[in-house]
Amino acid sequence: MLLNNLAPTIEGYFWKRKSLYFDKKDNLKTTFLGGLLSKVKLKIAKYDRRYFKLDIQDFVFSYAKDPASLATPNYCTSLRNLVSVKRNIVTMPEEDEEGNIQYKEMNILETTHEIDRGPNEACQNVFELKVADRMFTLYTTDNIMMEKFVLYFEKIIELKMQVLHV
């Protein structure tokens, strides 16, 4: 019932924040050149433009360099692995007084903090998708596409929760 009015697939380009801040287990990376302080203090986030596809019929979420590359995607996971989705949120590492790194979710609309605002000023639409094995921070210039993806993810996660609690 939750998925009845949704198209069988949606797809489009997003700017994906590279796993510069986080490894696959969402732990802060410390092995790249430049060290931990450069990650926390400087704006050095990098982005890849990738083509994302959410396929309800095949029950998969994947991305590749372009639509033609989706036959052998860079990443693919079952929709069962979706954990959460949050619009207008980015997770940023912050260092406390003792030098410990804390992860803080920040609203992209907040103007008083140093926030990763994406690859360019035109990418004002962002959401974070947490999957069982990683976290995606996705930026786009297209608000309608972002809202569509977020709505689909919310409905799929809601359905997953209903099934688990039956």
Structure characterization notes:
This protein has one domain (9-164): PH-domain like, CATH 2.30.29. 17% of the residues lie in helices and 37% in strands. The relative contact order is 0.21. Strand 2 (47-55) and strand 3 form a beta hairpin. The chain is globular, with a radius of gyration of 16 Å. It has 2 helices and 9 strands. The strands form 2 sheets. A 7-stranded antiparallel sheet has the order 4-3-2-1-9-8-5, covered by helices on one side. Strands 6-7 form a two-stranded antiparallel sheet. The two termini are 15 Å apart. It is an alpha+beta fold.
* Helix amount: 10-25%
- Uncertain parts: 30-43
Spatial shape: globular
> What would CATH call the architecture?
Roll
Instruction: Describe the largest sheet.
Output: 7 strands, antiparallel
Q: What's the number of extended β-strand segments?
A: 9
User: Termini separation (Å)?
Assistant: 15 Å
Number of individual domains: 1
CATH class: Mainly Beta
| Whole-number mean pLDDT | 81
Question: Rg from C-alpha positions?
Answer: 16 Å
Order of strands, main sheet, comes to 4-3-2-1-9-8-5
Counted by DSSP, the helix tally is: 2
Question: Could you say what the CATH topology is called?
Answer: PH-domain like
